[in-house]
C-alpha cells in the first residue's frame, strides 16, 4: 500500500510522541510527566500533540498496546531437553527486557490498572498468555524427561514465575533504596525467576540451567 | 506507673484515630482518605485530630510503626523436622495475616516508600528481618534432614519468598479484576509461598507440607 505524504508525516509524529513519552515516563515516572513536558521536549506545540493524543491517558494506552505486541513472543515447544532449557532461558530474558523497556508501566502498575479498566483487561490478557507459555515450556521439559512436576505443581509454579517477574523491579528498587535500576537488576531478576524452576529439573537439565544462571549470581 | 486522666484520654484518642484510619485506608485506599474524613468518621473536630497528628503522613508513619511491631514475631529454631514444617506454616500465616491487617501499606507500597524515605528504611528493616527468619527456618530444616538446599539456594529462595509474600495481594487484585480481596486470597498466598519451599523438602517433610497446603489449593 502506498502512503501519501500526510499519512507518513502523521505516523512519524505519532512515533516521535510515543518514543519521547516512553523515555520520559521511564526516567521520571508517568505521574511526574505532563503532556506539556512531552510537547516541550519534542519542541512541538501542545495543540499539535493534542491533535494526535487527546490526553496523557491516551498516550499511556497506546504505549500499553505497543508493550502487549512487544511481549507477545511465546516460544514454540522444541523437543529436546537441552533446547527446552535454552528456550526457557532466552524467553525469560526477552520477557524481562520487554518489561525493562516499558518499566514505567510496572513501576506504577497497581495505580494504572486500578484507574483504567481497559488497561487492566489488556494486562490480564498478557498474564494469561504468559501463564500458558510457562505451562507449555514446563510440559515440554516434562515430556523431554528434564523436569519432574505434576500439572498442579506447574500451575502454581507458573503463577510464582509471573509474580516474581512482574514485581521484581519494584522489589529491587525498594531494596536498593534508589530508583536508578540498571540492566544488571534484570539479570538478578532472571536468576530469581529461573531458581523457581530449577528444583523441578532433573540431572543434566538442572546442571545446564545452573551453568546458564551462574553469571547472574549477585 | 500510674497514668493521670489526661494521659489516658490522650492515649485513647490516639488509639481511636489510628484504628479508624487503618479501617478507612484499607477500605478506600490511603490516597482517597483525608484527615477531614477521618475526623468526620470519629465525630471529632479537625483541630482535635491535628493536635495529635500534624497531618496524614504522621498517621501513616504511626501505623507503619505499629505494623513493624505487629510483624516482628520471628520463630525460634525448634529442632525436629515435623515441628520445623509446622513452624514455617504457622509463621507464614501470621506474616500474611499481619500484611492483610495493614494491607493499605502493601496496596500502595511503591508510592509510599518512594515519597517517604523514613518508611523505606523501616520497610527494609522488616524485609531484612524476614529474610533472616526464612534463612534460619530453612537452615533448621536442613539440619533436621528435612531439606536439601545449599546456602546460596536458600538465599535466593528467601528472596523469592519475600517477593511473593510482599506482592501477592497486588497480583491477586489485578487477576481477580476487583479490589475486594478476602481472607481466602491469603490462603492462596500462603499456598503460593509454601510451594516455593516445597521442592527443596525431602520425603516426610514434603508430604507433611503438602498435607498442610491441600485445603488452600484453589
What's the name of the CATH homologous superfamily of the largest domain in chain A?
Tetracycline Repressor, domain 2
Radius of gyration of chain A, whole Å: 20 Å
Beta-strand content bin of chain A: under 5%
**Major β-sheet profile of chain A:** none
**Structurally, how many domains make up the residues of chain A?**
2
Order of helices and strands of chain A: HHHHHHHHHHH
What structural class should be given to the helix and strand makeup of chain A?
mainly alpha
Overall description:
The structure is a homodimer of 218-residue chains. By secondary structure, chain A is mainly alpha-helical. Chain A has two domains: 5-54, Orthogonal Bundle (Arc Repressor Mutant, subunit A), CATH 1.10.10.60; 64-216, Orthogonal Bundle (Tetracycline Repressor, domain 2). In chain A, 76% of the residues lie in helices and 0% in strands. Chain A has eleven helices and no strands. Chain A has helices at 5-28, 35-41, 46-52, 56-71, 81-101, 103-107, 109-115, 117-143, 151-175, 183-197, 203-213. In chain A, α2 (35-41) crosses α3 and α9 runs antiparallel to α10 (183-197). Chain A is elongated. The mean pLDDT of chain A is 88. At the A-B interface, α7, α8, α9 and α10 of A face α7, α8, α9 and α10 of B.
Tags for this entry?
218 residues, Arc Repressor Mutant, subunit A, mainly alpha, homodimer, Tetracycline Repressor, domain 2, 76% helix
Question: Brief overview, please?
Answer:
The structure is a homodimer of 218-residue chains. Helix content of chain A is 76%, strand content 0%. By secondary structure, chain A is mainly alpha-helical.
Amino acid at each position: 500500500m502506498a502512503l501519501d505524504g500526510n499519512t507518513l508525516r502523521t505516523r512519524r509524529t505519532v512515533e516521535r510522541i510515543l518514543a519521547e513519552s516512553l523515555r520520559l515516563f521511564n526516567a521520571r515516572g508517568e505521574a511526574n510527566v505532563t503532556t506539556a513536558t512531552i510537547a516541550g521536549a519534542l519542541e512541538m506545540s501542545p495543540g499539535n500533540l493534542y491533535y494526535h493524543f487527546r490526553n496523557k491517558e491516551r498516550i499511556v494506552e497506546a504505549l500499553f498496546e505497543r508493550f502487549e505486541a512487544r511481549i507477545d513472543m511465546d516460544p514454540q515447544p522444541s523437543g529436546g531437553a537441552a533446547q527446552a532449557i535454552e528456550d526457557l532461558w532466552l524467553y525469560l530474558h526477552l520477557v524481562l527486557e520487554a518489561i525493562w523497556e516499558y518499566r514505567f508501566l510496572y513501576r506504577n502498575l497497581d495505580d494504572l490498572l486500578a484507574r483504567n479498566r481497559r488497561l487492566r483487561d489488556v494486562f490480564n490478557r498478557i498474564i494469561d498468555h504468559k501463564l500458558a507459555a510457562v505451562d507449555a515450556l514446563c510440559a515440554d521439559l516434562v515430556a523431554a524427561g528434564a523436569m519432574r512436576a505434576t500439572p498442579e505443581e506447574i500451575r502454581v509454579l507458573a503463577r510464582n514465575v509471573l509474580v516474581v517477574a512482574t514485581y521484581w523491579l519494584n522489589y529491587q528498587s525498594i531494596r536498593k533504596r534508589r530508583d536508578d535500576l540498571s540492566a544488571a537488576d534484570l539479570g538478578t531478576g532472571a536468576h530469581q525467576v529461573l531458581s523457581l524452576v530449577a528444583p523441578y529439573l532433573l540431572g543434566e537439565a538442572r546442571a545446564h540451567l545452573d551453568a546458564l544462571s551462574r553469571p547472574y549470581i549477585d
